[in-house]
Write a structure and sequence with these properties.
alpha/beta, Urease, subunit C, domain 1, TIM Barrel, 4-stranded mixed β-sheet, 4-stranded antiparallel β-sheet, 22% strand, globular, binds xanthine, binds zinc ion, Guanine_deaminase, EC 3.5.4.3, zinc ion binding, guanine deaminase activity, Metallo-dep_hydrolases
């Protein structure tokens, strides 16, 4: 059935500007596509009558409207997370990347070859991220083909838009969790791609993503093979990690002298470039310690960056310079990077992006600070560009698809109670609106204090995929 959304809508117009629409209406057809956006159109009754008269969509129309303290916002896009690591969120002690991988991560990922365990973990991570407003996620699964395919099945069934990657790694990890040869890794990757393309031939909800874990765990023949595969399949994205941690960078320098790959630039980015993996479809997670030359190379290839401030802080990798990347013309989005990051929430990633940018500013670059508008852009429109879906999601425009969340803030009454839709202080969450705040201030309060209690409903392609009861 077609749907009419009426009331307040907020979305990013540009990096530093939000569009605020009130008494507005968005009509969504039964395929989930936005057919019309009407700004300032008076009462709901007028809009309904107008759309009914215009007969823009056939059949009945279901109407949804915002009440005080509520607004529709585009769904969040998590441009980097490991579905397989979800049970480990918060468990990282004082580790840093390379010991964290060996101590916590590889044993858990390997254990998900058990389909019963994989179903439990993947089912939960999908529900949890949807409840936080993540309508699109770029997932790493594990090296296991069957459970990677199961993750794609579960995303499709739950209606979460997803990039699903079977992880490739043929060196350096323990023998119990490693592809035996580059050829075996490539064959398993093809098998998983074929499966995901079979279950969703139009790639409307799920799509495969070519996933070399990171250079240290991939041989040059494997990376070159994946580069060839990416050239052969030009609609598929690629995802990997880059320059997260200083010991990792030293390891890459040691493992991949330019002679080993034929790299023109002696750098981490140069290794990916030489293997055909640095493309306009590539999502590079972290990018904390890039050199000027590497950032320029990434910009020239139009590769994208997933900024992961939670993970970069938790496992003490460093503070990525997002302003510097943006000024070089590199498209950036946000990643929770669970379980290097401890939170499933992109809103938390946005808040931490704002805070980490202030640490960069305190290091001497005052311009580094990111505003509320900017971190919300990264969480939505920027993220959409990172995953190659900017024509479909990230904003509310005719022709795009209805991937959205209904946000509700707590409205404080005259006695200091909260009378939000769900009625009780606990349920209405941390954000208290007193009634005198501008919409800009309400959004700032949401970014700095909001959580899943404010995410009342979530839709993907017009389908209701989460409702907070
Ligand atoms: O944050 C990270 N998480 C991982 O799983 C990983 N693998 C390589 N590099 C990594 N970084
Ligand atoms: Zn990661």
């Amino acid at each position: 059935m077609a749907q009419l959304f009426y009331g307040s809508f907020i979305y990013s117009k540009s990096l530093d500007e939000l569009e605020y629409l009130h008494d507005a209406a968005i009509l969504v057809d039964n395929s989930g596509k936005i057919v019309a956006v009407e700004k300032e159109c008076g009462t709901k009754e007028k809009v309904v009558e107008k759309f009914v008269n215009q007969k823009l969509v056939p059949g009945d129309v279901k109407v949804h409207e915002t009440v005080e303290g509520q607004f529709f916002f585009p769904g969040f896009i998590d441009t980097h997370l490991h579905a397989s690591q979800y049970p480990n969120v918060g468990i990282f002690g004082k580790s840093t990347l390379l010991d964290w991988l060996n101590t916590y991560t590889f044993p858990l990922e390997a254990s998900l070859a058990d389909p019963v365990k994989a179903r439990k973990v993947y089912g939960r991570v999908i529900r949890k991220t949807l409840s936080h407003g993540t309508t699109c996620a770029a997932y790493y699964a594990t090296i296991d083909v069957a459970s990677t395919n199961l993750l794609a099945d579960l995303c499709l069934a739950a209606g979460q838009r997803a990039l699903v990657g079977r992880v490739c790694m043929d060196q350096l990890s323990p023998a119990y969790y490693r592809d035996e040869t580059p050829e075996a890794a490539l064959a398993s990757t093809r098998e998983s791609i074929a499966y995901i393309q079979k279950i969703d031939p139009g790639m409307e909800i799920v799509r495969p993503v070519i996933t070399p874990r990171f250079a240290p765990s991939c041989s040059a023949p494997l990376m070159k093979g994946l580069g060839k595969l990416a050239a052969e399949m030009p609609t598929l994205p690629i995802q990997t990690h880059i320059s997260e941690n200083k010991n990792e960078i030293a390891l890459v320098r040691e493992l991949f002298p330019p002679s080993s790959t034929g790299a023109k630039q002696d750098s981490y980015a140069g290794v990916y470039d030489a293997c055909g993996l640095l493309t306009d479809r590539t999502i590079l997670a972290h990018a904390v310690h890039l050199s000027e030359d590497e950032a320029d190379l990434i910009a020239s290839r139009k590769a994208k960056v997933s900024h992961c401030p939670c993970s970069n802080s938790a496992i003490t990798s460093g503070a990525a310079r997002v302003r510097w990347l943006l000024e070089k013309g590199v498209t950036c989005g946000l990643g929770t990077d669970m379980s290097g990051g401890y939170s499933p929430s992109v809103l938390e990633a946005a808040r931490l992006a704002a805070l980490v940018s202030r640490h960069v500013a305190m290091g001497g670059d005052e311009r580094a600070k990111l505003s509320v508008e900017e971190v919300l852009y990264l969480a939505t429109k920027g993220g959409a560009e990172v995953v190659g879906l900017e024509a479909k999601v990230g904003a509310f425009e005719a022709g795009m698809e209805w991937d959205a969340q209904l946000i509700g803030l707590g409205i404080v009454d005259s006695e200091g109670g909260v009378t939000g839709v769900s009625g009780g202080l606990e349920e209405d969450g941390n954000v208290d609106v007193f009634g005198w705040e501008s919409w800009q201030d309400q959004v700032a309060k949401w970014v700095y204090n909001g959580d899943d209690r404010n995410t009342k409903k979530v839709w993907v392609r017009g389908r209701l995929v989460h409702e907070r009861k």
